[in-house]
Write a structure and sequence with these properties.
The chain is mostly helical. The protein is built from 15 helices and six strands. The strands form three sheets. It has a two-stranded antiparallel ribbon with strand order 1-2. Strands 3-4 form a two-stranded antiparallel ribbon.
């Protein structure tokens, strides 16, 4: 492989690895804030213990997300310097806002929350975790705005003298439809992931009838979060698919391996064949579903790969404008299928845990074992979703503006990229072992004892007490 292929592999590995932590951080920060709010209002030790337990898991995950995210930022200047030089004025603006505003807000108030137990008044301490949670969502928003600009560039001009993209309207970059629907879809998916983590951890303890007073409410909370957020994922995903079809019709055609323009267009749940448009052996299809995804109408017209390839050649010049269709096809289905499985399981879990009871009776051990795997499904769905999003844009790094091959660093050779790829893979393997080890230790320890580190009562809220 040449430097371009290796740089793409490295960026893909780092991005997917980093995004394992992001949705858990976003979703769990809000859920921890909600649990602390419940404790603040009721003063029940159950909510306080749950807040500290899930807060510890949140902090472990947050720390790992920060470490892996820093590496991702450095790649733009190291492996993709031509990309950074060409569009850095535009792409760098939302990332700068994220670092100076959102991440500063997130990290500052998270630090106050960590060290503020028994030192800050309860109201102020509660406000800190909510502000930290808001900061995580703002960070996600600005980063997604930068990525959305790569999918649909707006608010810029090309300087004819420097031949670089220059920012002309930051408002358009931050508020375009692509950013809004992507943010909504990502945030709801983050809550599904965090809720599924609650199910996995709670199931491990509840199957052993341990810490039932704390983890049964957490289990029910996780079930409701997965169910509601999962339904919102489906709604926001539907909106995102229509925006994507208008802006990048080739991506939708590749998602179905649809080579000929069709009206209406069916959606294949499963296909046996090479997906090259000529050797399909068998396919299980649902009539009109692809048309509805793409246009909102079951009889809508969906453009095919061959027609779009011809149109792109006429518009952009000679070249192959098709992404790698088999990977786009299967990642799209795995994203949907794996993402919806936890929602169905949440319905079953809510039924089996109704009326204040724990799941019991026939098949209960299998129920707990399957629930312990719950977090794996949204994590995989998130990964396949990003693979589809980024791979389906190829051969563009900025759609319609800059080819991926033109964005790679011209002076970085294949050997250098290969060395960094191997090094990062080894380091990330070690970090994964550390992350899993810390999480397993924290999970096994369970919620803290109710008599340990109980914060002061409301009467103490009027006085700031700092311990040095």
């Amino acid at each position: 492989m040449d430097a371009l292929d290796l740089a793409r592999w490295q960026f893909g590995i780092v991005t997917v690895y980093h995004f394992l932590f992001v949705p858990i951080t976003i979703g769990l920060s809000a859920l921890v804030a909600g649990l602390q709010t419940a404790w603040f209002r009721t003063r029940k030790d159950t909510y306080l213990r749950a807040t500290k337990f899930w807060g510890k898991l949140f902090l472990i995950n947050f720390a790992m997300g920060v470490v892996t995210g820093i590496v991702q930022e450095f790649q733009f200047g190291m492996n993709w310097s031509d990309y950074s030089r060409y569009v850095g004025d535009v792409f760098g603006a939302p990332l700068a806002i994220e670092g100076l505003l959102a991440f500063f807000l997130e990290s500052t108030f998270l630090g106050l929350w960590i060290f503020g137990w028994e030192r800050l008044p309860n109201r102020i301490h509660l406000a800190c975790i909510w502000l930290a949670s808001i900061g995580t969502m703002l960070s996600a928003y600005f980063i997604l705005a930068a990525n959305s600009w790569m999918q649909h560039p707006v608010g810029y001009r090309i300087n004819p003298v420097t031949n670089r993209a220059e920012l002309t309207d930051i408002g358009k970059v931050l508020t375009q439809t692509t950013t809004l629907v992507t943010f909504a879809h990502t945030i709801t998916a983050a809550f599904v992931t965090a809720g599924a983590l609650m199910l996995t951890v709670s199931a491990w303890h509840l199957a052993r009838r341990r810490h039932v007073d704390v983890l049964r409410p957490s289990f029910r909370l996780g079930l409701w979060v997965v169910l509601v957020a999962g339904l919102l994922v489906a709604v926001t995903g539907d909106l995102q698919a229509r925006v994507m079809t208008r802006q990048q019709p080739m991506k939708m055609a590749a998602a179905e391996a649809l080579y000929d323009t069709s009206s209406p267009a069916s959606f294949s749940l499963f296909t046996i064949g090479s997906l090259d448009g000529t050797s399909e052996v068998w396919s299980l299809r649902v009539p009109g579903v692809l048309s509805f995804m793409a246009t909102g109408s079951p009889s809508g017209t969906v453009e095919g790969v061959d027609d779009l390839q011809a149109a792109y050649q006429a518009r952009y010049g000679p070249g192959d404008y098709r992404p790698y269709i088999p990977l786009a096809y299967w990642s799209f289905r795995l994203m949907i299928g794996l993402g919806m499985l936890p929602v169905a399981w949440a319905l079953l879990g809510l039924w089996r845990s109704r009326r204040g009871r724990l799941p019991d009776g026939r098949g209960v051990q299998w129920f707990w074992r399957c629930t312990m795997l719950a977090v794996a499904f949204p994590l995989l769905a998130n990964s396949f979703g990003w693979i589809f999003t980024e791979l389906g844009r190829q051969p563009w790094v900025v759609f319609g503006l800059l080819h991926t091959a033109d964005g790679v660093s011209p002076t970085v050779g294949a050997g250098s990229v290969a060395a960094s790829l191997v090094t990062l893979s080894a380091v990330y393997t070690v970090l994964a072992i550390v992350e899993v080890g810390l999480l397993v230790r924290a999970v096994k320890a369970g919620p803290p004892d109710p008599a340990v580190d109980r914060p002061p009562s409301d009467e103490d809220d009027t006085v700031l007490t700092f311990a040095y």
